[in-house]
Amino acid sequence: MDWILHLILLLGSPYLTVGFVNNDEVQTLTRYILRGPSRNSGLEWLEPLVDDFGHRMLCRKSLEDAIDFTVERLRQDGFDNVHTEEAPNMPNWERGEDTVTLLEPRNLKLNILTIGGVDPAKVTAEAVVLEDYDLINTTNVNGKIVVFNQKWTGYYEDIKYRRAAKEIKALGAVGLLAKSLGPFSIGSPHTGGGSDEHLPAASLSLEEAELLGRLARRNKTLKISIDIRSKNLPPCTSRNIIFDIKGSEKPEEVVLISAHIDSWDLGQGALDDGGGMAAVWQAMKVIRELGQTDKRFLPKRTIRAIFWTAEEHGFAGAKHYYEQHKNGKEKFYFVSETDQGAFKPTTTKSILRFMGNTTQRAKMQEIVQSLKRNDIPISVQEGDKQGDVQSWADDGVPSVQYVADKGADFYFYFHHTTGDYLNIFEDGDIDYTAAIMGTLAHVLSNQDKW
Amino acid sequence: MDWILHLILLLGSPYLTVGFVNNDEVQTLTRYILRGPSRNSGLEWLEPLVDDFGHRMLCRKSLEDAIDFTVERLRQDGFDNVHTEEAPNMPNWERGEDTVTLLEPRNLKLNILTIGGVDPAKVTAEAVVLEDYDLINTTNVNGKIVVFNQKWTGYYEDIKYRRAAKEIKALGAVGLLAKSLGPFSIGSPHTGGGSDEHLPAASLSLEEAELLGRLARRNKTLKISIDIRSKNLPPCTSRNIIFDIKGSEKPEEVVLISAHIDSWDLGQGALDDGGGMAAVWQAMKVIRELGQTDKRFLPKRTIRAIFWTAEEHGFAGAKHYYEQHKNGKEKFYFVSETDQGAFKPTTTKSILRFMGNTTQRAKMQEIVQSLKRNDIPISVQEGDKQGDVQSWADDGVPSVQYVADKGADFYFYFHHTTGDYLNIFEDGDIDYTAAIMGTLAHVLSNQDKW
């Protein structure tokens, strides 16, 4: 149990700080998680959440029950300031028994998932298959169902296909079938948020988007019928979950680590974003436990964790929280999220997607160097996709989103599919993510200034 | 186009034979496929079969239509002896809207596929989760639904779980839920053949078998309801497809390469076994084309290709053919099948699963050496699973089943799932399989004796 020996040595010696990162502090925290008493605790914490409540769709009982269950556990853990804050007017969309059927050249019920937010609609029309987005500008799509059969180039590059409703509707299209956003499939379409336009729209499995592509290349006329029963319902109120480790010197300066609790209505939302929640919880639990053993470990600034609601619906929960707090007396010093797979980083292709200025970036580099010294390979990369913490990032608060190497590709095997289950995580995945989030939170809560 | 140069050189020079394998002959054939005019032709041949007819379930119109389409194409190709032979009394099973629902500890419609051959049944009972088959002998399963949540160790090792109905019924079990037979899943259960017993039985997705396993380990009582609507119907008659390249010296001695045309009622049966068919067709086409260019390339024995029906139902089509022909005047000299993924071999973990005596095995080794010299890594391995050609293998006819390295594991990502689509094949997969099957057929059709 080398972490115990290390802790004893640490308690007997002053922290040795080079730059603003104290490597002993990072070592204590990461060893406590990866090889010490906290090992596997995040995964164990996650199990009853996803197994007992299942997926947690916004405006559904399973989400609100899961929120209650989580708050109760956080109170038992003894965190500071455990509470929920209401997020009113949340989008309420319910999936129905939707069908999309290829009628010609042969009858085949297609393997689809309706895109979130679409209202009931029926349409039968000829389909045109486009292998690239820009072809909408040179192809007659008027009166047609547009089928996108793009090559996977990455989620953020390809999301325009799923969100094309408004643009293709303006060109006269009567329906949208977008190839699912992922690099690999076993008959597994992906859902996700779409446009507000009431154009019938669904994601096709990779296999069947490619089938339609091949049929079109052989000059077959494709006739497709779309029958959407899904619908929007009156808005609901949901809740964000907040819990703190109160800062000893600057309690009103907040270092934020976060993940989201809501999910789509498929699988059990373990990957997206139960694993993120578990890593955030584990990081918080470890900082609290180490602080109880050694008061010097307690943070100077407040470390706050938030489990957002309504992430899957345009970050609606986080945006509401931001609006409520942006003019408050608390100052957000740093914000972060983990929502692209709480995976173990195995190469320095694992990144902290960072927004901030040059000085701040240099500090991130120091943190990353310290993580590397503790066998956590990772690098800093500029990027502007910060998910739920985007509002603060846009405000100039330094921000990070953790993306493991597996988060760039493997994550999208399962994202928004029926395959989003706890077994995606391998031993250590959540531990490593917790070690990264905990290190960020702890180091930044204690530095003098940005 | 080095194959043309090679062909010219070959035509001008006598075959150089070391042992019984003529390496020039193998090189001509493999180059013609892998880098010559036949490149990609198998994959192109397969496309309309799977895209225009879809899956091809026994006793369904799509199978018989696909048989007619295939026969017509073979006739146009000019093969000898193109015909079908009826296989009567074939099992006729139709999947219904089957549901399996977890009632306690929470309500969840489980992600299942009924096991083939099961008749309508309804049962609600407590479930017991077993992580290993042998636990049926030490666990009280009387009145219970048995859920198997085994670790994947391989298809042939684990198939006992799917076929456990008879045995667990004898112990008083009232239902069977078997974890799907595969190493990896994206919410993708696998179907397959089961037992004849009328015990309600279905395959669970990996994810949900593991979910039930975790709930049981946390001492939750599991209550499950099974409602099977699938049913057996009166038997039907289907057809095997036979086509030859007639032997020039020993036409009544048959060298057989084969694959099966029927599939389960999911996906499009491209992997299982459209790819096998395409490779067999491509091998036959190439041998015929090379023989037209150079008469010396024509086989001395008859090379026969068969596309079996009813493979998915206990090899019923092949067994019928065997019974009809075992006492005929034709002598089966060698039999083979490709039905475990028509993939490119990338390592010598790719095998010819071989049954035969020591002398025959030595000859297989020579063929394999020649394939290796032509950049096709493969090895010979003893094994007794020869699929549709098992009857001949059991009779002592030397036999081979081709299993690429990807056939051991990756194949079972898709096997009997909704993900069995043409896109599984990468560039070259079917070409390489055709090169192997073609080499086996051609070399063995021309050797003096075993």
TrEMBL record, chains A, B:
Cellular location(s): Endoplasmic reticulum; Golgi apparatus; Lysosome; Secreted
Key word RNA-binding present: no
Gene Ontology biological process terms, A to Z: peptide catabolic process; proteolysis
GO MF annotation list: carboxypeptidase activity; metal ion binding; metallodipeptidase activity
Signal peptide: 1-19
GO CC annotation terms, alphabetical: endoplasmic reticulum; extracellular space; Golgi apparatus; lysosome
Keyword set, alphabetical order: Carboxypeptidase, Endoplasmic reticulum, Glycoprotein, Golgi apparatus, Hydrolase, Lysosome, Metal-binding, Metalloprotease, Protease, Secreted, Signal, Zinc, Zymogen
InterPro entries, alphabetized: CPQ (IPR039866), Peptidase_M28 (IPR007484)
Pfam families: Peptidase_M28
Sequence similarity: Belongs to the peptidase M28 family.
Summary of subunit composition and partner proteins: Homodimer. The monomeric form is inactive while the homodimer is active.
PANTHER family named in the record: CARBOXYPEPTIDASE Q, PROTEASE FAMILY M28 PLASMA GLUTAMATE CARBOXYPEPTIDASE-RELATED
Name assigned to this protein: Carboxypeptidase Q
Source taxonomy: Eukaryota, Metazoa, Ecdysozoa, Nematoda, Chromadorea
